Predict the 3D structure of the following.
Amino acid sequence: MKAEARARANIALVKYWGKADDGPLNIPAVGSISITLDALWSDTEVQFDGSLAADELTLNGQNRPEQLDRVRRCLDLLRARAGVDHAARVTSRNNFPTGAGLASSASGYAALTTAAARALNLTLSRRELSVVARQGSGSAARSIFGGFVEMRAGTRPDGSDSYAEPLMAAGKWPLELVVAVTAREEKQVSSRAGMTRSAATSPYFPAWVAGSPPDLRQAREAIAKKDFESLADVAERNCLGMHGAALAARPPLLYWNAATIACLEAVRRLRRSAVPVFFTIDAGPQLKAVCAPGSSATVREALADVPGVVDVLESDLGPGAEAG
Ligand code: DP6
């Protein structure tokens, strides 16, 4: 009753920020569209063991009891389906910085769900896996799939129609990603806490939710037509809208540092000089630059020169979660 899985991080181009319910179902208030990355991944091993008293989690070699509630949520859903009640030993490792706005919970919970389902010998569709992964972390539902992915907010109170689905294969439009790392430490306010605070206190939150469906439509169309300009337009606007809602929360949420802004300006300068690139930023200070095929080398060089950038990572688009 043991299996391994690898799942990749993903970056949202139209963001998930806010929940429709604050309970364990973790249903998002808005849909989202993302790209799955090739180079940033979590490798997770799950072993169900009748001699264990309780579930255990080791992340990058350290015990992480504070994450156990969410891990247990995914494990319980799968244990119930399999009719198994053994506790599990979960060992996970990321090949990139954890908790610094690089979507480690997305790859982590997608890998956990995929490995646990395999260890229990369950045959679930990717859609079903995404429904389980969502309950560990909303963005993890998207990392079940590769390439361009859409997460449906859904309307059913039981969350059964809040799942991710593939929009387009990675190979059909091989965009490239450059991440400018501007801080290495774990962020102070998690996505979960930040979106909950935004929903509860930001006067801009209702406007953010209302703006999401048209942004999803534009992004879906831009991807289908491979229209880089249109995707750049909607992704930058949607990202700044999410941060606008967060900035207006009480107390305010400012995820950026000076280097984040300097990178944003560098990306705008590049685009003015005809380099096809746009930025997006999640709940952390790293800037993610999405580049048209063939332009990441220029973008990497420019971002590496920005004062305050401590590292630059690159990735192609990648596949969905895979049991090993
Ligand atoms: C800013 O998926 O980490 O990265 O569901 O509470 O675990 P939980 O939140 P999480 O939030 C991701 C927020 C984001 C935008 C996005 O990935 O869509």
